[in-house]
């Protein structure tokens, strides 16, 4: 997906409305139609001389996309990670001008909501049989940008969160190709979406929009979590996450008429959010305080823990008489969270951004990274704080490595942390590394970054960053279909 298109899509999604929930009758999708996939020129790759030779197959390939032109749009193709070249014999599949994707649990099916324009109109659902490299296409009955989409654990259903003037959840029966349920949501937009482990429920998190259709539309309201029945999307449970702040807030809470988008008038707060892979639990790391809220959808309970350093028994005794210290809030605080596959640890990075006026009266930005926090989920204790300038992170599918990313002068860099001993094993400049699964389920690191509109840098590495398999430059941006 092109970076500008991603930004525009996110901006429109954030303006979704908070209409009251209502049920919509199940709607059959039209019959599947074939997708014209004209062979096009393959992305040009340059293998690193010392890269090991491989016999590229679909099973050992990475899925990648490349935006070719306004007429061809985004093209999907399998890429040989050892050479950076598209695999021969697999005609690129057009995904339109804007696309959002989700893999089925067995990774045999790739679902894509494809939009042929930049206006969120006339979207189609593509169900791509990856081993056969065949596509079923269905015209969708809804309009609006997609904020999330996810398969059920058995791969038979697909939940799509989308919206323009009205934000909705649409449930699709993948095998039959029918919309089985739709429901308008009361949250502003759905920023996290996941099926319950048994597949019978759908878990949602979303901020609430308070001032719809105004300049201050994204002023923060209390976020909500919801549990819906996966069959008909009827509500089972909901809760307001009191104390969690997610959105834009005026600096002066007594001023209600100020435009919060004016410099120096407001600050934003984005908490770190992470679902546990095999549990019905959501962790919310507060952006403005040393707290973590745990949402247990199975027991339908919410609790909040203070994040604090691990203490000895004597320190815990002394802490019983201590007061509470509240963190100061800068113009903007944003956090990202990743959780270990076993659900025992939450890893958090982020940054504070503070605006100020220089002597010439110009607005400047001061950027302060928060470092890496390793938090134990059972009690909220901080196991370790590690100094790093990273503001983004990903965790490997096996939980072995953390990939900590930042943007430096002219290029990104990535630090790779071994979670088993909490030591850095590599620091890579000119790399924005994200784990990407091969078709056979193994994973590598993939990186794409741009230094100008027509200069893009791509590379593929081993999971620990020790060996570069391929790297190349191109005039077109290659986007790897990475892991969640």
Short description:
This protein is about 5% helix and about 45% strand. It has two helices and 39 strands.
Topology, element by element:
Layout: H1 3-13, E1 23-24, E2 27-28, E3 62-69, E4 73-80, E5 85-86, E6 93-94, E7 98-103, E8 109-115, E9 124-129, E10 134-139, E11 145-151, E12 157-163, E13 167-173, E14 178-184, E15 192-195, E16 201-206, E17 224-229, E18 235-240, E19 247-250, E20 266-270, E21 272-275, E22 281-285, E23 291-296, E24 301-306, E25 308-309, H2 313-319, E26 332-339, E27 345-357, E28 363-369, E29 372-376, E30 381-386, E31 392-395, E32 401-407, E33 412-418, E34 423-429, E35 433-437, E36 443-452, E37 455-461, E38 468-474, E39 478-480
Parallel strand pairs: 20-26, 25-30
Antiparallel strand pairs: 1-14, 2-14, 3-4, 3-39, 4-5, 4-6, 7-8, 8-9, 9-10, 11-12, 12-13, 13-14, 15-16, 16-17, 17-18, 19-20, 21-22, 22-23, 23-24, 26-27, 27-28, 27-29, 29-30, 31-32, 32-33, 33-34, 35-36, 36-37, 37-38
Provide key terms for this protein:
484 residues; mainly beta; eight-stranded mixed beta sheet; six-stranded antiparallel beta sheet; 2 helices; globular; disordered N terminus
